[in-house]
Amino acid sequence: MSVQESAFHGFANPVDPSPAELRAWAYHPESIPLTSMPQDWDLLVSGNGLVATLFDLAMDPACPARRFALHCLYIYAADGIRTQFRAHPKRRFWKLVELAERDGDELMRTWAHNSRFLRDQPNEFVYRDWCEGGLVRANRRLT
């Protein structure tokens, strides 16, 4: 069951949205289309401050912006793994992976699998897949 805001009234600062604003937008993404967001907005919101919110949104099959949230989780995973967790807390990230494996649906289990794959095979990183949405669009498991 998802918790949805009745309406979204905009971001105080779209470059640095609060978790509540991001959540409200995710359930009403038509109110501000992605095409009108600041350039590289996906990269801007894919940090530590919003990762828990993004994870919750990606775990909710009823969330209209679920695929966007999942895309941001792929960015977060790649950033953490490729920087050997200098960019993101390692323990926090792997807890999310474990939650996705245990409680997630196929989309989330695929994200968890691919995160583990990248950890084990960092040279297999492809920017287009991890940071431009390729793995979300294809929903494929890396092998």
Shape: globular
Q: Element order, helices and strands?
A: HHHHHHHH
Note the gap between the termini. Answer: 33 Å
Number of domains: 1
**Poorly predicted sequence stretches spanning 5 or more consecutive residues:** none
Percent of residues in helices comes to: 40-55%
Average pLDDT score? 94
Which radius of gyration do the C-alpha atoms yield? 14 Å
Given the structure, what is the number of helices? 8
Q: Which structural class best describes the helix and strand composition?
A: mainly alpha
Sheet with most strands: none
> Would you report the number of β strands?
0
Beta fraction: under 5%
Give a quick summary of the entry:
This protein has 143 residues and is an all-alpha fold.
Structure description:
The protein has helices at 19-26, 41-45, 51-59, 66-82, 90-103, 106-120, 127-131, 134-138. It is 55% helix and 0% strand. The protein has one domain (19-138). The chain is globular. It has 8 helices and no strands. It has 143 residues and is mostly helical.
Feature tags:
single chain, 143 residues, mainly alpha, 0% strand, globular
